[in-house]
Design goal:
Layout lengths: L2 H15 L21 E23 L4 E5 L5 E3 L4 E5 L1 H16 L1 H38 L4 H24 L2 H33 E3 L4 E5 L2 H4 L11 E5 L4 E16 L13 E6 L6 E13 L4 E9 L4 H6 L2 E20 L8 H16 L4 E5 L3 E5 L7
Antiparallel strand pairs: 1-8, 1-12, 2-4, 2-7, 3-6, 4-5, 6-8, 8-11, 9-10, 9-12, 10-11, 12-14, 13-14
Length: 391
């Protein structure tokens, strides 16, 4: 936080909290009538640091480290789906060429599968012919066997050869051979289909397109201000590290204000009654925004809760001129009916000990029995009279 902002918030806290009580006596001074204090329907609660940004706004990070080709100039207006960059363009092109070659070579591989099956079939037929010749020799020898032992051995050899012949004939079955060819060809087609799916996934991850219509702003200096020697319209290339923020895309048709949501001062406040102002000075005016939602956002080691306010349509044009981080945001609460507003400095010396023991709710209950504290701000307190708000 800058020195000016630090002094600003320090002054607010010192003045608003009023902890430097001038006396310690528990004796209460005479309290004025609650009805003597003005009524309001809107109370300033506090001032915090926050940001004003387009409602449609994203940071775009790189994937793996490598070269990125940027196809559009810095600060380009893009439509949803516009291709604006390619990650690792050389790898993508090499994969594309490899896939084209694989597609072109598929028919040749399918034919090779047919020829390989035919060659296997021819080899089997030669083996079968050789076995049948061996069988003929065994049968002839068996007829001339002159001993029981020789007959037994020859018969066993003949039986073994007959088994091999039967198995080979089974493998030479035309239907089985056609099935083997079809399986080999299907495996080749599936391998190509997997390669195509992998390429499509790589292409989707590599080709960066706009998620919505808006303004594209690069965050890399070498892309924001390209080499003057580069040819007009020529894509720019830059090396990026893994998960590096490369660009932002914003739709400035609407804006929102983001502030931290953990401030204890908001506890008990109906969030839908909150609004914020960014006071940009007399020359520019005030940007006003109404409560929209709460979100948990990534803040490093743990999530941070934030409150988000939507800028009213009348102030969007001004918001376009003054977006940014670390702005002073004034937070207000609106009430459905008028309530009394009392400055803390008017109360801190009326009953110091009761204030110290019971806080502002205790002091208000002591000064005006039946009155209710609706909101404690940095400098003022919103109080409902015993008869209720508006009375």
């Amino acid at each position: 936080m800058g020195n000016k902002k630090r002094l600003f918030f320090t002054g607010l806290m010192a003045f608003g909290l009023g902890m430097g009580l001038s006396g310690t006596s528990a004796m209460a001074a005479q309290a004025p009538e609650l009805s003597s204090f003005p009524k309001v329907t809107k109370l300033w609660i506090t001032a915090v640091e926050g940001s004003l940004r387009p409602a449609g706004w994203v940071r775009i990070n790189s994937g793996a480290s490598g070269e990125v080709e940027f196809l559009l100039p810095h600060n380009s207006e893009v439509a949803k789906g516009t291709l604006w960059a390619i990650q690792s363009p050389e790898r993508l092109e090499n994969e594309r060429r490899g896939l084209i070659l694989e597609r072109e070579g598929l028919e040749a591989k399918l034919n090779d599968a047919r020829w390989e099956a035919a060659e296997r079939n021819e080899t089997l037929e030669m083996s079968l012919a050789e076995l049948e010749n061996q069988r003929s020799d065994l049968v002839a020898t068996l007829k001339e066997a002159d001993s029981v032992a020789m007959t037994k051995n020859l018969q066993e050899a003949l039986d073994f050869t007959d088994g091999k012949i039967a198995r080979l004939k089974g493998r030479l079955d035309p239907a089985r051979l056609d099935q083997q060819v079809a399986q080999s060809q299907e495996q080749l087609r599936l391998a190509l289909a997997r390669r195509e799916m992998e390429f499509e996934q790589l292409e989707r991850n590599s080709r960066l397109t706009a998620a919505f219509s808006g303004k594209l702003r690069y965050l890399l200096p070498q892309v924001q201000q390209p080499d003057p020697a580069a040819k007009p319209g020529e894509p720019l290339r830059a090396w990026v590290e893994a998960n590096q923020t490369m660009a932002t895309l914003s739709d400035d048709s609407s804006f929102e204000v983001v502030i931290p949501g953990q401030d204890p001062i908001f506890q008990g406040s109906p969030l839908e009654q909150l609004s914020v102002h960014l006071e940009q000075g007399a020359e520019t005016g005030v940007v006003r925004a109404l409560y929209a939602r709460q979100e948990d956002v990534d803040a490093g080691e743990r999530a941070q809760n934030v409150m988000i306010f939507k800028v009213i349509p009348e102030d969007v044009e001004l918001a376009r001129k003054v977006p940014g981080e670390n702005q002073i945001i004034y937070v207000y609460r609106s009430f459905p009916e008028p309530v009394h507003v009392v400055r803390k400095e008017a109360l801190i010396n009326l009953a110091p000990q009761i204030l110290a023991d019971g806080g502002w709710p205790g002091l208000i209950a002591h000064l005006w029995p039946g009155a209710k504290v609706l909101q404690v701000g940095l400098q003022t307190i919103a109080i409902a009279s015993p008869a209720g708000p508006g009375q």
